[in-house]
Amino acid sequence: MKKLVFLLLTALQSATMYAQVTRVPNGIIVTARGHQVGLFATNAAFCLSLNDSAAPRALKSIFIENHTSSSYTLVSKPPLYGIQTAYGTLMINANTGSWSLYDPANKALIQDGTYAFTDSSTTIAYPAAGTYYGSGNIISKSLEKEQSGSAVSNGLAGIPYLWNTGGYSAFGVSVNDDAPATWNNANQQLSWQYRAKAANLYLWPASTIYAGANGYVKLTGKPKLPPRWAFGYLQSQWGWEDSTYIANVLSKFRSHKLPVDAFIFDFEWYTTTPDYTVAKAGKEGYSDFNFNPTLFPHPAKQIADFKKAGVKFIGIRKPRLGNNLLLDTARQNGWLSHPESESRDLNFSNAKLRQWFENKTKPMLQAGVDAWWDDEGESYYTCYYWWNTAQFHLLNEVRPNYRHFTINRAFSPGNQRFGYCTWNGDIQSSWESLADVPKDLLNFSLAGMYYGACDIGGFHGTPEKETLVRWFQAGVFFPIMRAHSDLGTTARFPFLWGEDGEAAMRKALELRYQLLPYTYSLGHEAYNTGAPIMRPLVMEYPADTTTANMTDEWLLGKGILAAPLLNAGGKRSVYLPEDTWYDFFSGEAIRGPKTIAVRKQLDEIPVYVRAGTILPLGPVVQYTEQTSTTPLEIHIYPGKNGSFKMVEDDGTSYNYTKGNTRTTTFAWDDATKTLSWKVSGTYSGKNTYKAIKAVLGKAEKSAVIGKDGRVSF
Asked: I want to staple 136 with a disulfide (CB 3.0 to 4.6 A). Which of 19, 157, 666, 674 is the partner?
């Protein structure tokens, strides 16, 4: 009798379990409080999936690159059910609907989570604790966040992502990518809002910002490297006058020994008149897809001549049409994003429009255009994604395996997959705007945009000489270094700003180019791990409350602390966290934590290097592809052990994604004062370094690289 009762109870329990839990290939669906809730596992994160009118599922989204399912173990402790993976556990109570997130050690990261539906929306909430980072700069330029935005604007982006100091990251995906999820921290509750009756919230344990970023790129895609030349200096302006003017500017850059890798052209390269006054119906004869013969009477030859001088061509693009006949075609085919309005913007999410756009653009690439500057594409959230999709596809057709690079005025999740840069918009030429730039770019770094830039000197107005010089100096330590200016202002060509201004800017540019082996290797680190190139100090010093919201100084990688002058007068205070720091220029050692007062001449920059750093410095060249027989300098900053992976490749192809690189892993043993290195990888191009000069203070040692080796001091 007891055995029969036991069997009946077991059968009843099993029936109840299967009534409440359904196993699916990527996880489980649990019936809780009358709703079906999906708990799914990808290779990077859990997905809490809700749908009030259908079975929950992983929503289709261009934001997510990898839907690969992860192996998981079903956890069944009725009424608690969940899935456990190598990176943690996600649980739900079938009776109450309450859900929780745990790390691999079973530490609770989120408890008592809830969800709710209205007629047109979904809310996912849980008790708020800790500090939030990520989410972009559209709501606030502060690094610490209280909410996110759901739009893009001029140099601004709201991203449905956060990292919390409690040890987890979250990323929201909605039914419509153009109506992204948002979150808000209020009344001790963190609430995710979705404008539909279905929602996905991706969650993953992440004890550090680095771990959060690593999970983010596993989920949304690795940040592909731009071509190596994009790590140099890019000179832009609105107001290139004619072909003679362009040739003279190039001649002066080279004769004045001012390093530069690209010229960037505004409206005037393809049309004689901006389209801002063009009516809805368009303008007869307007040029959308041609070269302006005043500037480029022989575009293919001129661009080829630029390249012989080491200068690439980047042209501005607008997301709209100006020509009346082309607009007629677009309207007839339903290719406009807002056909009911006065807008002439294209809907790049339409595949047929993208194909037409590519065909129209193709002759420009065939003439030699290297990259695009995409402006004013904020009419819908995913515009830049689809616009870049068209450009990426066309480039691969015209120039197979050549790296895509664009400069864009905003971004959305996943755009980093293109080799994509965002600049922080059309800003003023002022000290206030200069101080805001690192705030924007550090927020970009924390929100998945790895290549941030700005208009050095500001776009509107003409800066003071001191302001421009300090802007150039700050730009040395931005992921992408680009100057730009408006019509009617003084161009940001260094040779126009007096001998002292030019000399200071030249010195900054030379440092930028010396740092190329370091910054380019950081690009590879970003691709492989998700660690940004430009990092807030809080990433390395999370327990130091002084760094929690610091934006007037930052790290390039882990080793270089940049504290450029962002104010007039040549004086500022610099905070050095707990570590030993070396003045980059004098070699003076300073022990932190310490705030120091610095005073710098016009051509001087406050830069410090952390003990244990191995810093590769290349020779001064006038453009990135210029060859040099000068040995690579490996500067060692003693006080602790250290290592650095220097990565070399061909600089232009995607072969690095298939492992065709040469990685030299340098290691410093502080006790024995020995620098050793190991070389791995298959790349052996002519642009690899053949010799090094190891530098420890005033001591120097020469050696050959290309195979494993060591030197001792």
From this structure: 157
Q: What is the CATH number for 342?
A: 3.20.20.80
Residue 18: which pLDDT band, with cuts at 50, 70 and 90?
A: very low
Nearest to 49 by CA among 62, 67, 65: 67
Q: Are 143 and 155 in contact (CB under 8 A)?
A: no
pLDDT of the residue at 70: 87
Tell me: pLDDT of 316 over 70. yes
214 and 239 belong to one structural domain: no
Same domain? For 45 and 186 the reply is yes
Q: Is 184's pLDDT higher than 60?
A: yes
Q: For residues 450-454, give the mean pLDDT.
A: 98
Rounded Cα distance, 166 and 238, in Å: 47
Would you state the pLDDT for residue 66?
75
The Cα 154–Cα 161 span in angstroms is 20
| Phi, psi for residue 593 in degrees, rounded to 5 | -75, 135
CATH number of the domain bearing residue 552: 2.60.40.1180
Cis amide prior to 413 (ω within 30 degrees): no
Q: Are strands 420-423 and 406-408 parallel, antiparallel or unpaired?
A: parallel
> The pTM is what?
0.96
Mean pLDDT of 310-335: 98
Region of poorest pLDDT, from 11-20, 220-229, 443-452: 11-20
Other CB atoms within 10 A of residue 12 CB = 10
Backbone angles phi, psi at 45, to 5 degrees: -160, 160
Listed in sequence order, the residues at least 6 apart from 79 whose beta carbon sits closer than 8 Å to its beta carbon are 20, 93, 94, 95, 96
Give the DSSP letter of residue 237.
E
- pLDDT, one tens digit per residue, over 568-588 is 999 999 999 999 999 999 999
The tokens for 537 are 């100090």
Q: Are residues 149 and 28 in the same domain?
A: yes
Give me the DSSP letters along 338-374.
Answer: -TTSS--BB-TT-HHHHHHHHHHHHHHHHTT--EEEE
State how far the Cα of 606 lies from the Cα of 588, in Å rounded to an integer. 12
Statement to judge: residues 267 and 128 lie in one domain: no
Q: Domain residues for 144?
A: 19-220
Q: Are strands 371-374 and 406-408 parallel, antiparallel or unpaired?
A: parallel
